[in-house]
Amino acid sequence: MRISSAAPRCSVWGRWARLRWLTGCRSGVRPQQSAVPAPGTLRQRKLPTSVVSRAWGVRPWGGRGLHAASSSLQEVMLTSERYGVQRLPFSCLADSDVAFFESIMPGRVITNPEELKPFNVDWLKSVRGSSKLMLKPQTTAEVSQVLRQCLIFSLCLGLMFLSGFFHMKNKIISKNRKELILPRPCHAKTNVMFLKTHKTASSTVLNIMFRFVERYNLTVALPADQLVHLGYPKTFLAHFVEEFQAIGQNYNIMCNHLRFNPLEVQKVMAANTFYFSILRNPIPLLESSYIYYKDTVPAFRISKNVNEYLASPLKYYHPENYKQNIYARNIMWFDFGYDNNAEDNEEYIQAVLKEIEQNFHLILIADYFDESMILLKHSLCWDLDDVIYFKLNSRSQDTVQTLTPESKERIKAWCSLDWKLYLHFNQSFWRKIDETVGLKLLEKEVNLLRTRQKELMETCLLDQAAVGKDHIKNKALLPFQSGSANILGYNLKQDLDNRTLRTCQKMVMPELQYTSYLYALQHPHKKRKRLGLPLLWTSSQEKVQLPTPN
User: Fold this and answer.
1) Distances from the Cα of 324 to the Cαs of 2, 257, 312, 329, 471, in angstroms?
2) Are residues 101 and 137 in the same domain?
3) Together in a domain, 505 and 437
4) Rounded Cα–Cα distance for residues 531 and 509 (Å)
5) Is residue 148 part of a domain?
6) Domain for residue 9, yes or no?
7) Which domain range does residue 229 map to?
8) HSE of 368 in the Cβ direction (CA atoms, 13 Å)?
9) What does 262-273 look like in DSSP terms, one character per residue?
10) How confident is the model at residue 124 (pLDDT cuts 50, 70, 90)?
């Protein structure tokens, strides 16, 4: 095949092979994913073997028909017309896919139909394809990113080799017998435990986890009976999970509030479970806790404001009431299962940090939430839409109390265990970014995430933003209100079709309502959790029917 003189020079690898990648799609949305196998098994999202073998078929080089006049190419019959074959259910090529490819190989993404015509016809001019995109990667890193994008989003991929390669046993061998190692596709992790910490944007993460449960028909470890937490603030025990005795170690997802107890969690979750959690800077965290738990925590209730509390915390924080005051000091340390009143001993702290690193594969940082979602996506091998979110359980700005510079420094001392926990894992977070994603790709994927989020907000939301509790029209979507905080919610558009409405409802569904809803779906024979809130759906059929996966 003749190569255009305008094509850029390749690297050493590119000198002995040039690839042309054609990605095609049918009109419409991405196809529905098939259901996940029985709980406890790992769902492997990959192209069928038959598709892979065809997609990697090698075309003879020489390509006499590829540069014929476009008018003659127009007369070649489509493969589907000549042979009556049906296209397998690949996804549609989306604008976000094209944007992603452009971000990794600027100027080497071809979408012009006229330029694509020669590459859609075989060299004998007997059949014609309908690919919408051609890519020109020049390095193995670019090849790897293209493969990953296509496998994750089920895009049909075809290769054309312009040098002396041939295909043998799923490997690509060059004339000099050097093997080109293709990147191994990862498989989506479906056994995941999320330690839901307090006031760390964890309600938004829980919503992401619950939507993933529904999308792939997984089994979630929900609080037993009328509980909305997994025994919190008690240290977690396996029997806090509904039907643990019957289901055993076959739960896929665990994400409701609990106080971490690894030995008991391991009784519930499979051996190959991925463990992750999220932390937040203790300075804004304590201010948020003060407002949210103002009416329930004695140390907060008897102080006038957060700055007064921090000026002399021991005046309000009484050791005998430590169980009621857990939110007033080192709450993250407590959530991980440790003593939040322990002395600030360096040897003890280092031992705890090491133990957390052993128990958890990943610790996210709420202060960099979008970056955290991209890192989570890569770590779990999930789709971009799996980590799309609307911010939940946030409060109005008028309830935020301004911390003085002195109060900020006092938090570092009063919550020194949380502060050192945060500093340690903030550093490890950015190391993970470098190892897993890289800053350059991270920035691009964060932009894609925000673009997709904006699209969904324009589709779903009436006000294009969260609104105060008094302005939420559908009280079934009213979040739980606590303390002095005005917890925000959302209003959905009224003209949505049923499928879109369901998707949007799940995006904005508050934590308690979603927990109750999944409980009714997963345990229909059990009494529905009483939340004192209106039901989202009232008919019995809607209560027990799983929504169609997106």
Assistant:
1) 76, 17, 18, 11, 32
2) yes
3) yes
4) 14
5) yes
6) no
7) 192-544
8) 18
9) HHHHHHHB-TT-
10) low
User: Where does 240-301 show beta strands of DSSP type E?
Assistant: 253-254, 274-279
Q: Output the 3-class SS for 449-504.
A: HHHHHHHHHHHHECCCCCECHHHCCCHHHCCCCCCCCCECECCECCCCCHHHHHHH
My answer on whether omega of the bond before 118 falls inside 30° of 0, hence cis, is no
Q: Indicate whether 161 and 201 sit together in one domain.
A: no
Residue 61 · residue 1 · CB < 8 Å: yes
DSSP 43: P
Give the residue with greater pLDDT, 304 vs 177: 304
Check residues 85 and 49 and name the one with the higher pLDDT: 85
| pLDDT digits 0-9 by tens, 375-409 | 999 999 999 999 999 999 898 888 999 999 999 99
Provide the β-strand partners of residue 78.
128
Give me the CATH number covering residue 295: 3.40.50.300
DSSP three-state, residue 529: coil
Statement to judge: residues 385 and 522 lie in one domain: yes
Residue 536 gets which letter from DSSP?
S
The helix (H) or strand (E) run that includes residue 135 is strand 133-135
Q: Residue-wise over 388-402: b if at least 16 C-beta within 10 A, else e?
A: bbbbbbbbeeebeee
b/e sequence 213-236, b meaning 16+ C-beta within 10 Å: bbbbbbbbbbbbeebbbbbbbeeb
Let me know whether 310 and 390 are in one domain: yes
The reply to whether 187 falls in a domain is no
What percent of the chain shows pLDDT beyond 70?
74
CA–CA separation, 524 and 534 (whole Å): 18
User: Number of C-alpha atoms within 13 angstroms, CB side, residue 139?
Assistant: 6
| Residues 6 or more apart in contact with residue 387 via CB below 8 angstroms | 208, 373, 374, 376, 377, 449
- Domain count of the fold of the chain: 2
